[in-house]
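Dear support,

I submitted the protein below through the web form. The confirmation email said the job was done, but the results page showed an empty box. After a refresh the structure appeared. I'm attaching both so you can tell me whether what I see now is the final result or a partial one.
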Amino acid sequence: MISRIVSGGQTGADRGGLDAAIHCGLPHGGWCPQGRRAEDGVIPSVYDLMESSSTDYRTRTEANVVDSDATIIFTYGLLEDGSLLTAEFAEKHSKPWLHIDLNTTGRRHAVETIVEWLRTKCPSTCELNVAGQRGSKAPQIAQVVKAWLIDVISKANGKLFYPIGE
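What the results page shows now:
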């Protein structure tokens, strides 16, 4: 069961994860850079995030990995930049992580894969860190991550959270 979604609040996959949590009524949070800095300006206050003591994205990325039980990283293609850094921090702190390449994985298969992975890595409850590409590198990723995670949360938590309204 997913008990909370954690994310850094950047545009793209991060906000898709937070939006899925809000849609499903799950608690959400995580660390963001000092000043609530993101590529589109200030992270909106609708996201219940704590500011780290640094404006450096690396600081909040590592804190979110450490403070969660497991991490899912969504990208179109290979891990690079902040997505790769997230995986490296998960390895450093011996935290389970899963990469979902949206170019090679369909929605149904991804949802089944994630739910099964969560059952093995977080057998009771899970604070799930959601990370991945930012909006400027993958303009549609926030909407995809939100929709797919609503499916994951519905299946993992045994409760349907539909329809997906905007």
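Response: this is the final, complete result; the empty box was a page-load delay. The two ends are 25 Å apart (CA to CA).
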